[in-house]
Specification:
With 174 residues, this protein is of the alpha+beta class. Helices cover 51% and strands 10% of the residues. The chain contains eight helices and four strands.
Length: 174
């Protein structure tokens, strides 16, 4: 195990060593090549569901880059996030076509059901994160909502809540 992973194994976080070992595996899979920073960050984000600062620093050091360079890449691309997200990320389009067709009502219904507010977009159980985006590129299906990678068109508040209930039921059954 790498020195940093060993240090984390001795820390107060029982899952840190396991996760940090996964970061080492990701780095090794990419031959610790700084030119592969973006795919490395994508895989790290898959592991954590966000990019923790301490992991970014470890990645930077492992690739011979400055932490500022890695942080700059991570904050430049909108795909990357520096805050934890839920297992299911719900992206609701609020572009012109979707907004005109009621995306605000859908957002309000989702927030009410999940107990979220404009300043808090992830549920306490880390199951759902609700985000609005400017455009999902599917205006003909407006209003559009994407749950992880699954696209749902012509969504109504009722349909959005039904999708939430289906996911919640599936999670309870697992």
């Amino acid at each position: 195990m790498h020195e940093a992973a060993t240090a984390l194994a001795q820390s107060d976080c029982p899952n840190c060593a396991r996760h940090f070992a996964r970061v080492c595996e990701i780095l090794d899979r990419h031959q610790r090549n700084p030119a592969k920073l973006i795919p490395i960050l994508q895989q790290v984000q898959e592991e954590y569901r966000y990019l923790p600062t301490e992991v970014l620093t470890f990645v930077a050091n492992s690739l011979g880059l400055s932490p500022a360079q890695v942080h700059g890449v991570a904050t430049f691309y909108s795909h990357f996030t520096m805050t934890p997200k839920g297992k299911y990320t719900i992206r609701l389009c609020d572009g012109t076509a979707c907004h005109v067709r009621g995306s605000t009502d859908i957002l309000d219904a989702l927030r009410r059901r999940l107990g979220l507010s404009p300043g808090r977009n992830t549920t306490a159980d880390m199951l759902f994160t609700v985000e609005t985006v400017s455009c999902l590129g599917a205006c003909g299906l407006a209003p559009v909502m994407v749950i992880n990678e699954s696209v749902h068109g012509q969504v109504t508040p009722e349909k959005a809540l039904t999708l939430l209930e289906e996911i919640s039921a599936e999670e309870r059954g697992s």
